[in-house]
Amino acid sequence: MATYHIETYGCSSNRGESREIERALRDGGHRPADGPEDADVAILNTCTVVEKTERNMLRRAEELEDETAELVVTGCMALAQGETFEEAGVDAEILHWDEVPSYVLNGECPTVTPDAEPVLDGVVGILPIARGCMSNCSYCITKFATGRVDSPSVEENVEKARALVHAGAKEIRVTGQDTGVYGWDDGDRKLPELLDRICDIDGEFRVRLGMANPGGIHGIHEELVEVFADNEELYDFVHAPVQSGSDEVLEEMRRQHRVEKFREVVETFDDRLDHWTLSTDFIVGFPTETEADHERSMDLLAEVRPEKINVTRFSKRPGTDAAEMKGLGGTVKKERSKAMSELKMEVVGEAYESMVGETFEVLVVEEGTGDSVKCRDGAYRQIIVQNATERGVDVGDFLEVEVTGHNTVYAFGDPVDEGGAGEGEPVEGDDPSESVTSSA
């Protein structure tokens, strides 16, 4: 489990991106530090609006590099002038904002603390159903913190879910290191039963299943897809991180699946559900990955075309077996990551473009930047509704929207009952000199 410190400079768009980064890190079990000196990683979300701002960003990066164990720089200056940091001798990872969570998580399982309890964040209820996992991945450090899977009973988790709904939760996020192995410690595969019973709770809400490794989900995938098909409360969304398209690399990673098992899970959901969202992860540049292995990963991504993809450049974690392997050069990892990220944007952009002109029922999950709100359709695809106040749209509402446009990784939509107001446009930014520090 890593601790993090985030500093954000610039417009409301940057602040929204930092919120997304932090939410993903928290969902992954990582926790904020008291300050950069106590953090495993510091994240600097930069602005580059004027030359003075650029000098301030560079100076702050230099300060953070001295104060923290690892520095990640993202935001406008990182993307437009990333070489400036290198030229100044700043040792930092320069990333697009949506690459930051996967880089920090490093392909590892999310970490649930021993005393983890349900949390209500706005209308989103976080429900940890178990702690630990059944895997022993060679690159993962969180196994040292979590141990083997420990699953509370179905009844206990259902009661926690019911309490969240009664407290106002409209979306329940079922989380764990590996939700697919829930119940394995008792010799029983209980995830389908648990999801079925949560969906049977009285109330209007949605349920999102958290990460389930292909090796754990494969043995129950046929039973599980029936639960999805029978319950409209369940988002038709599965996060199954494949990590590589090469069986040889998967073996070196000590993953509990091979590519064919992953394909079988995908094909089963394709056959049974009209539309669903596949989310998956790839680790690029694992020490034993050859160019041919990388091409197999690229081919698999192009073949299954997930709607959500996390691409992580391999980085060594102290104490793991993979840390002892002779690594690939940074240039190789960077080039492979760039190639896969470009393919990712093509695949994801294609998925969201296909939604334009269609109408979907959505749940308004949270506020966005400016006067916008973030919504999720039945397959957990993100749709942004702008000018929410004048349209009378509030967090927690269920409504029909027509998708009017997209911005590669999300769509824009207009409420159907107001007749549509044309394609949504990005919200103008606020004062770029404003900064927000999030470390607690």
From TrEMBL:
InterPro entries from the UniProt entry: Elp3/MiaA/NifB-like_rSAM (IPR006638), Methylthiotransferase (IPR005839), Methylthiotransferase_CS (IPR020612), Methylthiotransferase_N (IPR013848), Methylthiotransferase_N_sf (IPR038135), MiaB-like_arc_euk (IPR006466), rSAM (IPR007197), rSAM_horseshoe (IPR023404)
Catalytic activity of the protein: N(6)-L-threonylcarbamoyladenosine(37) in tRNA + (sulfur carrier)-SH + AH2 + 2 S-adenosyl-L-methionine = 2-methylsulfanyl-N(6)-L-threonylcarbamoyladenosine(37) in tRNA + (sulfur carrier)-H + 5'-deoxyadenosine + L-methionine + A + S-adenosyl-L-homocysteine + 2 H(+)
One Gene Ontology MF term: tRNA (N(6)-L-threonylcarbamoyladenosine(37)-C(2))-methylthiotransferase activity
Enzyme type, top EC level: transferase
Enzyme Commission number(s) from the entry: 2.8.4.5
Gene3D superfamilies named among the record's database cross-references: Methylthiotransferase, N-terminal domain, tm_1862 like domain
Region (Disordered): 412-440
Names of required cofactors: [4Fe-4S] cluster
Domain Radical SAM core intervals: 119-354
Boundaries of every TRAM domain copy: 353-417
Keywords annotated in UniProt: 4Fe-4S, Iron, Iron-sulfur, Metal-binding, S-adenosyl-L-methionine, Transferase, tRNA processing
Residue ranges of domain MTTase N-terminal in the record: 2-109
Domain of life the protein comes from: Archaea
Coiled-coil segments: none
Record note on cofactor: Binds 1 or 2 [4Fe-4S] cluster. One cluster is coordinated with 3 cysteines and an exchangeable S-adenosyl-L-methionine.
Role according to the record: Catalyzes the methylthiolation of N6-threonylcarbamoyladenosine (t(6)A), leading to the formation of 2-methylthio-N6-threonylcarbamoyladenosine (ms(2)t(6)A) at position 37 in tRNAs that read codons beginning with adenine.
Family, similarity comment: Belongs to the methylthiotransferase family. CDKAL1 subfamily.
Protein name according to UniProt: tRNA-t(6)A37 methylthiotransferase
Organism taxonomic ancestry: Archaea, Methanobacteriati, Methanobacteriota, Stenosarchaea group, Halobacteria
